[in-house]
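Hello support,

Our group uses your service weekly, and this is the first time we've seen a run hang past the timeout. The protein is 4-diphosphocytidyl-2-C-methyl-D-erythritol kinase. I'm not sure whether the cause is the sequence or the server load. Input pasted verbatim:
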Amino acid sequence: MLYVKAPAKINLTLDVLHKRPDNYHEIEMIMTTVDLSDRIGLKEIPSGIQIESADRFVPNDSRNLAYQAAQLLKDTFHIKSGVLISLDKKIPVAAGLAGGSSDAAATLKGLNRLWKLNLSLDELAELGAKIGSDISFCVYGGTALAKGRGEIIEELPSPPNCWVVLAKPTIGVSTADVYGAFDVTKAEHPNTDQMIQALRDKDYQSMCDHLGNALESVTLKMYPEVAQIKEQMKRFGADAVLMSGSGPTVFGLVQQEARIPRIYNGLRGFCSEVYAVRLVGDREELD
Ligand SMILES: C[C@@](CO)(OP(=O)(O)O)[C@H](O)COP(=O)(O)OP(=O)(O)OC[C@H]1O[C@@H](n2ccc(N)nc2=O)[C@H](O)[C@@H]1O
Ligand SMILES: Nc1ncnc2c1ncn2[C@@H]1O[C@H](COP(=O)(O)OP(=O)(O)O)[C@@H](O)[C@H]1O
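Update from on-call engineer: The timeout came from a worker crash unrelated to the input. Re-ran successfully.
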């Protein structure tokens, strides 16, 4: 079995510029990898694609993004043999943390080795974009500005080191529904340039000050519990809080490790999925 790590991401910023003729939205967002990962196992089998996962929310057929990644490589490079993909899920599903996209990216990277395809990261990212908008970023990991519908990636400096507390209410959010309800005339736009400057300066306070997500108010309206989690996280001592992606996961940035137990335990009181992890904002730190 070949094992590959599939880490989650958070959005430090997410701006939606306009709706495109192809029904996607033109976006500009800054994503960074966090140390909460699924583990993907890949084993060659005589034919076909099989998915194994103990998580009942994860599809085990062609709806699975890891399945689609394997199918795309098989079709593109005329691979006869098959693969068993086992998914050890740690990233909450439909959470705004790109779990499925990261599984697909890890499958592309793992099968590139298993099937000796010799593809570059750029080539894998381009293939990944055919399956989903977030997969290109997940192929590279680290910290990046994503443009277009999310597939145009420019590497950025890693954020100043800190803790990230993640809290997910017991709802899953459909990304398509959130983009569908988005109204560009009412949108709040984060300042992407200032966030890039904060990363260049390694300025923790400025990074906190410039967190922003144009989709947040849409999801908050659908699910008021997300706003409650934001409030609680701030009250328990996080330096800055934001919803990740289309939600519903809320993350809090925390510089002082001593503050983590209070925030973590406080949130565990009314939120079943809470994690305290580190940022892994540098591509080189990934395996
Ligand atoms: C919101 C974000 C932020 O990182 O992530 P998540 O919340 O899913 O983690 C992404 O933009 C999500 O990317 P991803 O989940 O890969 O989306 P896709 O599968 O490509 O698209 C799902 C649906 O979302 C909408 N969509 C997606 C991307 C985009 N730029 N504009 C859109 O309008 C479309 O309706 C599309 O049919
Ligand atoms: N490998 C996978 N892991 C989790 N969900 C997956 C996977 N493949 C497909 N899905 C489907 O994709 C949807 C979005 O899941 P996920 O990628 O975890 O969320 P998000 O896009 O919000 O970060 C889920 O509802 C699930 O049915």
